[in-house]
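Thread: Modeling a multi-component assembly for a lab meeting

Hi all, long-time lurker, first post. My supervisor asked me to bring a structural picture of a complex we are working on to next week's group meeting, and I have zero experience with this. I have the sequence lines for every component (472 residues in total). Could someone generate the structure of the whole assembly? Inputs are pasted exactly as I received them:
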Amino acid sequence: MKKISLILVLIISSIKFAPGQGYPSPGQVKDDGRFAASTKQLNQFFRRFNAEESEDGQTRFNPGDARYHDRELRGKFINILFDNETSQVTKELKQEFITVVNAENYPQYLSFHRGNWFAEVSSFFTYKGKRTPVTLYMKLEEEGLGYEWVIDKISFDPFKQYFNKPEGNKKPFLHPLSHELDFMNLRKALQDGKTPESYTADGFTPDYLTLFLYEIKNGNIKFETVNGVKFHFFQVDGWYFEVNQFNRPGFNTGWLISNLIKVKNEEEKEVILKYIYDQE
Amino acid sequence: MKRYIQAFILLFFAATLTVSAQSDNISPQRKQAIDSLALEKVKDLSKYISIIGSKDTQFSEANRVMDRAEELFSPGSEMGVSSVNSKEVAYYPVRRYFERLMALNYDQVSISWYDIHYISDLERQPDGRYVGVVTVYQRFEGTSAETGLNYKDTTKKDITIYVEKKQTQVAGRTIEFWDVMLGDIRVTETSA
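Re: Modeling a multi-component assembly
Sure thing. I ran the full set together rather than chain by chain. Output:
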């Protein structure tokens, strides 16, 4: 019985006192503050942006806690969430952004589940025996009992060159009385022609993702590796920003805002999206 | 006797971690308890990695520790490793990663851990399980007596944790408890 009591005491002590204590005990190295300062996960980027954790990251603030969404803390946090070493974001623009998101009457917070943000994943695949870069655009979606990341779009250069639809009076076409000949000219168009996309409707856009999945299923494209991830946010009214990971010496590291743009209207947002999706 | 001890431990976990058995939502208090459990598993893993990497560990002992370390993981877990010079991720099954660590060609190896960790929020997956990420930092030092070369690096380890509510029968009663398993680990060499 003594043994049981001893084991229970040991378990209780290990569980109750684990949070907030140093990690782990054997061969411990003291952080000089760099890792504490680093925005270590995108989750921490969200928490810092919203002021939902303490300065040292060890205490999570929840609704009802005194410092949850604290304005002063937010101001400090957002200031350090910028890449202050290499980015071209001016001090004035940064300050304007902080004033907007941290406004007393209309503060704006980031939300993991609210949409209007997505990931851009740079990767390598083997295609026709050659190592080929592919960019995957991923978004978070509700599914079943929770959430999942899904592939929303892709950018893949070898597919782009396949679809170059000519326009205007120089383009190949099926003449307007083709129907009277049972569309017999389809043979010339599709068998001999080099640009079958010429015969598609106005507004035709190839679905690269479907093609990509088809090629994977046929074994023609094989995943190799991921070599970079960044995130694009449109959650703050009138603003777009990009978040990148900075792995470098110093205190301004981890997931940080690397690009910030004011977005005046939907048209401007579309221009930015087209640029991100590599569809200019 | 062993059975009694297991029953006591199980009851303890159930009492600590199942605040309301009806709800599948995780309250902040329960989240803290789960964080502690997850940290315990990560601590175990850190301890095992230090033993496997140490040149003082006998081959048979290292294999035994690898078995124990593997038990912490859900099946099919992988380590994705990148360096400062190459951001590309190299993938290793967990066991293979441990074997490579054991086989490193140094006469002396020292693995230590920074006194800092970060635990993400828990997010629910489509299958109802919760997933989180624990970040820790490891310092590695390897010395080769023959060449006198000394290699050092610091790596950031982002460790997936899966949290699942499970049930067990103890003395005819159904006890619910939260279990934590480790999953894929992303290992990034830092510039520190």
